[in-house]
Amino acid sequence: AGVKGLIMIKDIINEYYQKGYSLIPLKNNSKFPAIRWKKYRRRRASLEEILNWFINFKELKFMNFKEPNIGLVTGEKLVSIDVDYPSLLPELFKLLPEAEKTTRVKTKRGFQFYFSNNGYKIRSTKNLFGLGIELHAKGRQVVAPPSKINGFIYHFEIPLSQIKPLPEKIIKYLEGTLPGIETGIKEGGPAPGVEVEYKQRRALSLPRYNGQDRYCIKQIWDRELKAGERDSSLFILYNLLLQNKNKADYAKKITILKNNS
């Protein structure tokens, strides 16, 4: 069984490597890297390095002699959408039909959707399309099959052979909502197809993180307020801005802008 396991892991590593992906070892039963991996955000480890990590794992004493999980570095070759709540899938598929057809990994809580990236420098975000879902790109890594965490084995529901190119809609969305986004496409000015509301948000940007969780602020800011919830939502927004150590006049300005949107 041990020999078969080594052969299997070598085959898996080789498949990832031949597709141009950058691999790192993750701690056993964990999502966290087992090595200092900063340099591997800039360069891909050689196949020899990778095999030493995964095949000769008993030499890695800091992992207590346990087999590591597999991490794929995201960025110039691979971009992944991480959805922890399956209830968000219908909205994601509506906004991004390509996600329904591309490589899909089943995680314990939800799914990962892989897209191939042709060298564009795409930054990561925790709120893609305002849905509160994560886009893993530059400077991040994802847990890859057949990693195992708390008894659950990550596995492909749609194989790597069916991976789709990074949708242009993601690039345009990031260009429109994240100032200074590095895509290698846009030279300046708003991206084609980006709605006016995005330009308004950039003109008066949300405050930086000041010690409080900004997710609730962004959730209110990004969605359309319906009749019956507007007053309470604006009240919550104003108070969250104050809790996030913004001055009262700035919090008021943000709240008025949202009310007029």
Automatic annotation (TrEMBL):
SUPFAM superfamilies in UniProt: Prim-pol domain (SSF56747)
UniProt xrefs under CDD domains: Prim_Pol
InterPro entries according to UniProt: DNA_primase/pol_bifunc_N (IPR015330)
Segments forming domain DNA primase/polymerase bifunctional N-terminal: 13-170
Pfam family of the protein (one): Prim-Pol
Coiled coil: none
Protein name as annotated: DNA primase/polymerase bifunctional N-terminal domain-containing protein
